[in-house]
Design brief:
mainly alpha; 4 helices; elongated
């Protein structure tokens, strides 16, 4: 795939995923079936933010050439977005509330996604 098309694809996927997280975290979940797995929502948060950090990393690596700056930027973007979502839940929804454990799960997910990108970078040397 051409580099420009690949960059546009990664941007579209990152934006789509960001919007999906926003909707999933701000919409009432009263209609969603309850899963009886301890801390299942934390696993979902972890997965959401692992994918979030991977997609934004793949897009932004064409914009930020310094690898350390790229990793730090995507990490802070992920953490700040997660905190913003938690604040929005607290301020703008009646059925959702901010949860520090969600922020921690989001942060761990972002770290996991970036760890996968570090392995990817090392293996494939883009």
């Amino acid at each position: 795939m051409e580099p420009n098309k690949k960059r546009i694809l990664f941007l579209a996927l990152a934006v789509f995923w960001t919007i999906s997280i926003t909707i999933a975290c701000l919409v009432s979940m009263s209609e969603v079936p309850v899963v009886n797995v301890d801390q299942a929502d934390k696993i979902v948060h972890l997965c959401f933010y692992a994918v979030f950090s991977i997609l934004w990393f793949l897009y932004l690596r064409t914009k930020i050439r310094n690898t350390k700056k790229l990793f730090l930027f995507v990490f802070f973007l992920s953490v700040l977005f997660g905190i913003l979502i938690e604040i929005c839940q607290s301020l703008f929804t009646e059925s959702r509330q901010a949860d520090l454990k969600d922020v921690i799960a989001n942060t761990i997910g972002a770290l996991l996604g970036l760890a996968l990108m570090a392995v990817y970078n090392k293996r494939f040397k883009n």
